[in-house]
Design a protein that fits this description.
The complex is a heterotrimer of chains A (95), B (486) and C (492). Chain A has 95 residues and is mainly alpha-helical. Chain A is built from three helices and two strands; from the N terminus they run αααββ. Helices cover 39% and strands 19% of the residues of chain B. In chain B, the strands form four sheets. In chain B, strands 1, 2, 6, 7, 10, 11, 12, 13 and 14 form a nine-stranded mixed sheet that branches. Chain B is elongated, with a radius of gyration of 30 Å. The chains are: A mainly alpha (95), B alpha+beta (486), C alpha/beta (492). Chains in contact: A-B, A-C, B-C. The interface between B and C is large, with 29 and 43 residues. Strand 2 of chain A pairs antiparallel with strand 9 of chain B. The complex binds magnesium ion (MG) and zinc ion (ZN).
């Protein structure tokens, strides 16, 4: 088992997904079986191979520094589960 | 220059402060780094937010060419290596003002590599501070915590605005050096026009890394003080933090590496517990963006029309105008004052101009709590005043009175001199008449002056007084010696 | 009048031009068929009013001679494509009732060319799945059934709604997306044609992202010609997508000359995986002989790193997904579950909003990117990707296209693989390498299995050479002469 319950708890926290204590064991098993399976990549010698950076060879185009913009406040906040006079709102964040 | 003066005496001996700065500078551009929403400061909440900035599903970043140019210009301005190939990475973490759930930044391959900045210290010495790197990244939005008892409000106007993060090497050894570094960096950015450097508006903020060690010992554990937003606070934060660390170490304690916050009101740094939760940013290349590839031609073109920067300008002021390195340094520290001086000095006595600008002019500004942009006296007017001195229309003493009136009224010096009849009297006949009166009125002094020739000063004073200060001092001297047969 | 839902796009286009029927009639026929097919669970949102309004506008254009290349053609749209004013959910609870104020580039190009939207089609949640069983709206049922067996079968995935809707004549064609086989495998499972273009051929702007370096939009249709027609409208450079390529869009239909004499067709020996069903072997060799007899040269090639494609994919795709799905946090749109503080709100929202498979992949992706594992997993996988791309590049020095099976089996029963992620992943063994290398691929229906279920053959083309691939595909289609149709058991 490459991944134990504490690891699952940790990565679930990093991913901001609540998992119950009961789910930890089965999840650890699932994730481990997949990670064990990908271990086979170790067979391949990739010593001098460069990791792929762009899928098809092309240069990245750049945008001109032009503002194409009307007030999007409504469009941007329209789908918000909650909002208050143009602000998104969340449970208070304590610094 | 010896680092000696930088050592801090603790109860158990001397300590050395080691400082490194990460400065976040907002790039001057019309639109954001990856979207075409505007960057202007102070708009209504969530008005300057595009669908990309709000991380709507399926939205994609497209890079703004000008932001790239600005980063390259800045890199050239701080004498740094420009990397023709750089890569944008995603820095993954959750925060309400980070809509994508990641910040697009440059982690492994920044657009600008190593360089250096020369900082000017109070004792007139110059020190080189190494630059580690400069990279482009997105700014986050703003969370407002004081609007509501149980809610934080999120405004994404800043979200996606282009920032340059400029990381120094741990080369600074005192708060003075750190402040000089930020001043110099800000001057360079302003000369280049790549960042307005307005710390109070947050377009420039510094993360200060502070550690202390025994002289010559290996680096100590550092603490990072986040988002210090004024040069004065940078000084205070460093002084407090260094002292805090020394006290801990001298009591046999250990420094915990952590992120801290400077509280200007209390004048102290506090641990940011909220940021302490185990961080793992999971950086990886942003698959929505291809590597950023620049041509040498583009970089050369930008290098070719780089403006003159503070160090070169100071050298030129010394060379061309014969100013002292000190005066030159004072004048170039802000582009506006350097430009003001050059306008005043053009076609005139530059030394005299420098004295007036750094002396009476800056003095008056400070007293009035004004800056060059809001000065009642223009460079043109101050230049005219210096012209009037040089062509003997008025004496230096009268000039000071004229300047005071200029500063109050904003009137042209020539006009003031006319209206107030302050022209210097150079008509010898007129001066002679005054002298004769003074001699006639003081026979005893005339007798005395034969024994004590120094007494001539008294006569000069009387004559100047009688002429309302307008008599040409030189002529007065000559005529007096003649008439008193000295 | 003939059943208008039986037409291909090409025939419908002729009929509309000739005035044999109107766009409104054509659209109404498909709306009616779709409304009567709820048992298949293909459409998650039907938009009949919009459809008829668009059709009416098309009839205008058809009559005044300003018709576009797809004028009046009723299409279904995968729910991964953002459609302005029409709920778009990626079939995930986390998007709740999200209604985009914008239209994806690909769909806006279809509307530009006159196409009509019937509704939004079901898919695996965030396109993560190979059976369309992970959708928040429940599984899509394959219109096909094994002979003498009433078991409900999967339509493949993730574009199962698209493949089933086209197979069941609920649209003349459908948009789909393919990250690891999500267009080609469902096409193979439903006897339809599925085309995954070269990465960068179609804009990704406005398509809910799964894995950015692998996602690509494409059509599912009932003929190779129809696929060529739809691709012509879907493809093209988009300044809003930096990864979309700025080269002209060829006339794909014109490439269908039917002449493949001298074409070099590669047969990758590594695709002969052990345990491959005999009928798949048989189908493959049939395909080989069909192309040979049409004048193609058959060349054996080797793609040595093929067996590492799936494991590499299951590192890269989840890694990118874990980051792409971080924006679903309950703040700006979609589902929100209240919490005692911000972290609690995030964790509850995302726990309630994501299904098991999506959660599984987010966790794997988070793990392989986390400190200490990044090089061992993510970088390693990206290096394998380079090797796989090199394998193909080598092969294309010798051949023009590659021929392989599309999937290792025909459609399987609903629920058969849901408890075994790995066996589910293995469905994509023949399609995933194509995504990793960014190449174009197409699945063509080529025969029936012993139990009477459709089987597909895959052609893989050179980067941005969809034309040659399509030309070979139409010859394969012609030779296979696949005309079987599912019985219409689902009709209400
Ligand atoms: Mg920092
Ligand atoms: Zn930064």
């Amino acid at each position: 088992m490459s991944v134990d319950e504490n690891t699952v708890r940790h990565i679930a926290r990093l991913a901001r997904i609540a998992v119950t204590e009961e789910e930890l064991a089965p999840l650890a098993k699932e994730v481990s079986s997949i990670l064990d399976w990908v271990e086979q990549l170790g067979e391949v010698n990739t010593g001098h191979v460069a990791p792929m950076t762009s899928v098809v060879e092309m240069e990245m185009k750049m945008r001109e520094d032009i503002v194409t913009h009307e007030d999007l406040q409504d469009q941007v906040t329209r789908n918000a589960p909650v909002s208050e006079d143009g602000f998104f709102t969340v449970p208070k964040v304590v610094e | 220059m010896s680092e000696k003066k930088n050592l801090i005496e603790g109860a158990t001996g001397a300590w050395e402060i080691v400082l490194g700065l990460e400065v976040h500078a907002q790039v001057m551009s019309q639109a954001k780094l990856f979207s075409s929403a505007p960057t202007k400061f102070g708009a209504e909440q969530n008005v300057q937010v595009s669908l990309v900035d709000a991380a709507m599903p399926g939205m994609l970043p497209v890079i703004n060419e000008e932001c790239v140019r600005q980063a390259v210009r800045t890199g050239l301005g701080i004498k740094s290596q420009i990397n023709l190939r750089s890569v944008f990475d995603r820095k993954n973490y959750f925060y309400p003002d980070l809509p994508q759930g990641y910040q697009i930044s440059q982690f492994k391959y920044p657009i600008v590599g190593e360089g250096e900045i020369e900082i000017d210290l109070a004792d007139g010495s110059v020190k080189r501070v190494g630059v580690e790197r400069l990279h482009l990244e997105q700014d986050a939005g703003k969370s407002i915590h004081d609007q509501h008892p149980s809610l934080s409000f999120v405004d994404l106007n800043r979200s996606g605005v282009a920032l340059m993060e400029i990381v120094s090497k741990p080369d600074m050894r005192s708060s003075e050096e750190a402040q000089a570094y930020v001043k110099k960096l800000r001057a360079i950015l302003r000369y280049l026009g790549t960042c307005d450097g307005n710390m109070e508006e947050g377009s420039m903020r510094a993360d200060v890394n502070v550690s202390v060690r025994r002289p010559g010992a290996p680096l100590g554990t550092r603490c990072e003080i986040k988002n210090v937003n004024s040069i004065r606070f940078i000084g205070q934060a460093i002084e407090y933090e260094a002292r805090r660390q020394i006290d801990i170490l001298e009591d046999g304690g250990e420094i915990v590496q952590e992120t801290r916050l400077f509280d200007p009101r209390a004048g102290e740094t506090r641990s940011m517990r909220s940021k302490e939760e185990a961080h793992d940013y999971r950086y990886f290349p942003d698959p929505d963006l291809l590597p950023l590839v620049l041509s040498q031609e583009m970089v050369d073109a930008l290098a070719a029309d780089l403006p003159e920067l503070p160090d070169d300008k100071r050298a030129r002021f010394v060379r061309e105008y014969g100013l002292s390195p000190y005066d030159a340094g004072v004048l170039v520290s802000e582009k506006t004052s350097a430009d003001f001086f050059e306008e005043v000095a053009s076609g005139r006595d530059a030394k005299l101009a420098a004295n007036w600008v750094t002396g009476d002019f800056f003095g008056a500004l400070n007293k009035a709590g004004r800056v060059i942009e809001t000065s009642p006296v223009s460079a043109k007017q101050l230049g005219e005043l210096i012209g009037l001195i040089s062509d003997d229309t008025i004496s230096g003493r009268i000039a000071k009175d004229v300047f005071e009136i200029m500063f109050e009224t904003g009137d042209d010096p020539a006009k003031i001199v006319e209206v107030k009849g302050l022209r210097q009297v150079t008509d010898l006949g007129a001066i002679e008449r005054v002298i004769d009166e003074v001699i006639a009125a003081n026979p005893d002094k005339v007798a005395e002056v034969k024994e004590k020739p120094k007494l001539i000063g008294w006569f000069v004073g009387q004559v100047m007084k009688a002429s309302g200060g307008k008599a040409n001092p030189q002529s007065v001297n000559e005529l007096l010696s003649k008439k008193l047969e000295l | 009048m003939t059943d208008l839902t039986k037409l291909t796009i090409a025939d419908a286009r002729k009929g509309l031009a000739a005035g044999s029927f109107t766009a409104v009639e054509l659209t109404q026929a498909h709306v009616t068929a779709a409304e009567a097919a709820s048992k298949l669970n293909t459409y998650v949102t039907l938009t009949p009013e919009k459809a008829l309004a668009m059709a009416k506008a098309s009839d205008e254009k058809l009559s005044n001679g300003t018709a576009g290349p797809l004028e009046g053609i009723p299409l279904g749209i995968k729910d991964l494509f953002c459609t302005e004013g029409v709920r778009t959910t990626a079939c995930s609870k986390i998007l709740d009732e999200f209604t985009p104020p914008y239209e994806s580039t690909v769909t806006s190009q279809l509307w530009r060319d006159g196409a009509v939207m019937i509704g939004k089609l079901n898919n695996d949640e965030f396109a993560m799945g190979s059976s369309n069983e992970t959708s928040r709206f429940g599984p899509v049922i394959n219109p096909w059934k094994a002979s003498g067996d009433d078991t409900a079968l999967v339509p493949g995935g993730s574009s199962g709604g698209s493949s089933a809707a086209v197979a069941a004549h609920l649209a003349l064609g459908a948009t789909a997306t393919d990250t690891g086989g999500s267009i080609r495998q469902p096409a193979a499972f439903t006897g339809t044609v599925g085309l995954k273009p070269t990465y960068g051929r179609c804009s990704r702007w406005g398509i809910v992202a799964f894995a950015s370096s692998l996602d690509q939009a494409g059509p599912i249709t009932r003929s190779v010609r129809d696929a060529a027609i739809m691709l012509g409208s879907m493809a093209g450079h988009d300044a809003k997508d930096t990864t979309s390529v700025d080269i002209p869009v060829p006339d794909y239909e014109a490439a269908l000359t039917g002449d493949i004499r001298g074409l070099k067709v590669g047969i990758p020996k590594e695709y002969r995986v052990d345990g491959m069903p005999a009928e798949i072997e048989k189908l493959w060799s049939d395909g080989i002989s069909w192309l040979k007899s049409a004048g193609a040269k058959i060349v054996d090639v080797s793609l040595p790193h093929t067996k590492y494609a799936l494991p590499a994919y299951y590192i890269v795709a989840p890694a990118e997904a874990s980051s792409n799905l971080a924006r679903y946090d309950g703040v700006r749109y979609g589902l929100r579950v209240p919490g005692k503080d911000i972290t609690d709100m995030y964790e509850k929202t995302r726990a309630a909003g994501f299904g098991d498979e999506v959660r599984r992949r987010i966790l794997i992706g988070t793990y392989v990117l986390s400190a200490g594992y990044y090089d061992a997993y993510y970088i390693k996988a990206q290096k394998i990707r380079t090797l796989i791309a090199q394998d193909f590049a080598e092969a294309y020095k010798k051949v023009d296209v590659l021929l392989t099976p599309t999937a290792p089996s025909p459609a399987f029963a609903v629920g058969a693989k849901t408890d075994d992620p790995l066996s589910m992943y293995l469905n994509d063994v023949f399609t995933v390498p194509v995504n990793l290398a960014g190449l174009p691929g197409i699945s063509v229906p080529a025969g029936l299995s012993a139990e009477g279920l459709p089987l597909g053959l895959q052609l893989i083309g050179r980067t941005f050479d969809e034309e040659t691939m399509l030309r070979a595909a139409s010859v394969l289609e012609e030779a296979a002469g696949f005309t079987a149709e599912p019985s219409t058991w689902w009709r209400a």
